[in-house]
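Quick one, tokens below. Sequence please?
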């Protein structure tokens, strides 16, 4: 384990990259999830089809394939279009940016189903009461829909977040120096790969434990005074 301590700064840097990647991806996934949920709940057939196509695409294609398609394929498309239009020169897509976009896009589909189910669980009478009181759609969302949606969505949301944290390891395949990449490189250089992977396992468990504490606190906050049958 003495060798591991010699590389503690490398592992710390990788951990910070992993946590930053997970948090930014979560933010993007929540935005995509809300958009996807409202598309699927829309009364317009075209919007419903768009929402269904989004979730079907993500659930039908492996995460690693999407990661490589967006990083390599997206970069190629941008550069081909730039050359064709003359609007810009060569663009080198950053691995961190590609990781955030990919994970946010993937887990946005899962969040869409989570939010859709939570919104459907809210009694329609409460929405109608808000309309009868003269509330605007924005006020109804902030004061009626959002608090209850969070309460209903938290169990599934928690699971999505924990899976997202583990999925950050995928970015190592596109060269991002995250925790897995740094630990693998350090372990291979000193021929102690197993030891370094055990350290990675422990770090991920610590992140999961801290996340679980935060999610439990959030659950208590939004479920205060709520009685479930």
């Amino acid at each position: 384990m003495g060798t591991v301590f010699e590389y503690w700064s490398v592992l710390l840097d990788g951990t910070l990259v992993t946590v930053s990647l997970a948090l930014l991806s979560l933010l993007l996934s929540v935005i995509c999830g809300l958009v996807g949920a409202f598309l699927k709940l829309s009364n317009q057939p075209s919007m419903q089809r768009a929402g269904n196509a989004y979730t079907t695409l993500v659930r039908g294609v492996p995460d690693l394939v999407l990661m490589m398609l967006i990083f390599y394929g997206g970069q190629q498309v941008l550069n081909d279009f730039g050359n064709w239009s003359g609007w810009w020169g060569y663009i080198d897509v950053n691995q961190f940016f590609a990781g955030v976009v990919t994970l946010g896009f993937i887990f946005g589909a899962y969040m869409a189903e989570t939010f859709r189910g939570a919104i459907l669980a809210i009694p329609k009478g409460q929405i109608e009461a808000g309309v009868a009181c003269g509330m605007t759609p924005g006020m109804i969302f902030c004061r009626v829909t959002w608090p209850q949606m969070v309460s209903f969505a938290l169990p599934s949301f928690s699971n999505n977040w924990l899976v997202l944290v583990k999925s950050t390891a995928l970015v190592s395949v596109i060269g991002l120096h995250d925790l897995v990449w740094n630990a693998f490189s350090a372990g291979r250089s000193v021929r102690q790969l197993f030891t370094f992977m055990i350290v990675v396992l422990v770090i991920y468990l610590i992140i999961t434990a801290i996340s679980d504490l935060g999610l439990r606190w959030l659950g208590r906050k939004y479920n205060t005074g709520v009685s479930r049958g």
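The first helix runs from residue 2 to 6. The domain at 21-176 is CATH 1.10.3720.10 (MetI-like fold).
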